[in-house]
Design a protein that fits this description.
heterodimer; A: T-fold; T-fold; 17 strands; 32% helix; B: alpha+beta
């Protein structure tokens, strides 16, 4: 079992693989190049990224790459599935509350002051984005700008893991807690995945047992900053345009695909305990979720019991 | 005829005596019945201690029947040589 670490997408990326050493080394390198190339495509912080160009084109049709077209179309599908709780068009709100640079730069330089912007209900809905599948073109309504950070990270992690699996008998790609697992390591019946304590970085609350597939966690305790005297976090509630007020600190989702796990982790965290069942809705038989509250109590769907050691 | 009657009396006497002694010996070696507890006496009974069942916690913040709160094992047995993967958001 070999491990390869590097930093990309403003997070730590860990790749683990089992197999023949030389083949794995080649797989690690190809997966790293894939991740870094896609970071260039999907980053909202890079002036020349394809996503930045799409955001600039709002109001006119944009010729997209196959990957960008796929992820934006997936995002709209999840927007409808989560009844709008997952909404990548909250970028103007993120900027308004100070998150206008990468989190690494914000930690160095501090957050921007509060900006004026249109409120969430004054802007066009993400459901109004149009797609021309035959020509692979996207039309964002005037005034719309997208942040594909979370969904793109999950999508990239899954693709990178599938790429790496061509060089290994079993492998995992973990991009800042969004991970995709292929196969099972020899001698293990499941992948052990540590669930991090949202109140104590690096501390383990419990260990999940997961098979091949995806795991993603969303939390309100990590990407945090002060804007003047106000504490902010990066998880915007699309209904208010403000950082979400939720009774949960983190939500972890186990699903078949990394983009779905990432999207539902975010939507369930925004919904909190009162709205989670409604958000999980039809997907509750396909996804498992575990939520951690302020007292470190762990809440979970019935299906999540398959993945935890309950005493 | 007289001799036959005397033999018959002797035989019945011996057979009765042997049956009585055999029955006595059998009952003497059988298990004794339980003695009833007399009023005012206490009977000590040893019962293995029962484990305390964890309380069933229902979510009380809304109509949310599918979500459960449970205590998980915080110290799972370490898996030697297992890969270390952690999820906690970023």
């Amino acid at each position: 079992m070999e491990t390869f670490r590097f930093r990309a997408m403003n997070t730590d990326v860990v790749m683990i693989a089992e197999g023949e050493f030389d083949r794995m080394a080649e797989g690690f390198e190809q997966a790293r190049q894939f991740i870094q190339a896609n970071e260039q495509r999907f980053s909202r912080f890079l002036d020349n990224s394809e996503l930045t160009q799409l955001n600039r084109s709002a109001g006119t049709w944009f010729q997209a790459s196959a990957d960008l077209f796929t992820v934006v179309a997936l995002a709209q599908q999840y927007f409808h599935q989560t009844r709008g709780l997952f909404d990548p068009s909250i970028l103007p709100d993120l900027r308004r509350v100070g998150y206008d640079r990468s989190i690494d730069l914000m930690r160095e330089q501090g957050a921007a002051p509060l900006l004026e912007s249109l409120l969430a209900n004054e802007r066009p809905s993400f459901g109004e984005v149009q797609f021309d599948e035959a020509r692979q073109m996207i039309l964002l309504p005037q005034g719309m700008a997208l942040d594909l950070g979370g969904i793109a990270k999950g999508w990239i992690a899954e693709r990178a893991a599938i790429l790496l699996s061509g060089f290994a008998s079993a492998c995992a790609v973990n991009a800042g807690g969004d991970m995709f697992l292929v196969g099972l390591p020899e001698s293990l019946e499941h992948w052990p995945v540590a669930l991090e304590d949202p109140l104590e970085a690096g501390a383990v609350l419990t260990t999940l047992k997961t098979g091949p597939g995806a795991v993603a966690t969303s939390t309100v305790t990590k990407r945090t900053w002060k804007q003047g005297e106000i504490s902010r976090h990066h998880l915007i509630d699309p209904r208010t345009g403000e950082p979400a007020l939720t009774d949960w600190l983190s939500v972890t989702v186990i699903a078949a695909h990394a983009d779905e796990a990432e999207v539902y982790a975010k939507a369930l965290l925004i919904a909190g305990s009162r709205g989670a069942e409604q958000v999980a809705g039809d997907r509750s038989s396909q996804i498992s979720y575990l939520a951690v509250d302020r007292h470190k109590n762990i809440w979970g769907s019935q299906k999540s019991l398959e993945h935890v050691h309950v005493s | 005829m007289k001799a036959f009657k005397a033999f018959l009396h002797f035989w019945i006497t011996i057979a009765s005596l042997l049956s009585f002694l055999g029955g006595w010996a059998l009952l003497a070696h059988s298990k004794k019945p339980l003695q009833p507890v007399q009023s005012g006496q206490t009977a000590a009974v040893n019962i293995a201690p029962m484990p305390t069942l964890p309380p069933i916690q229902f979510f009380n913040g809304g109509a949310f029947s599918d979500t459960n709160n449970f205590t998980v094992n915080n110290n799972p047995a370490p898996v030697t040589s297992a890969p270390f993967l952690m999820t906690g958001g970023s």
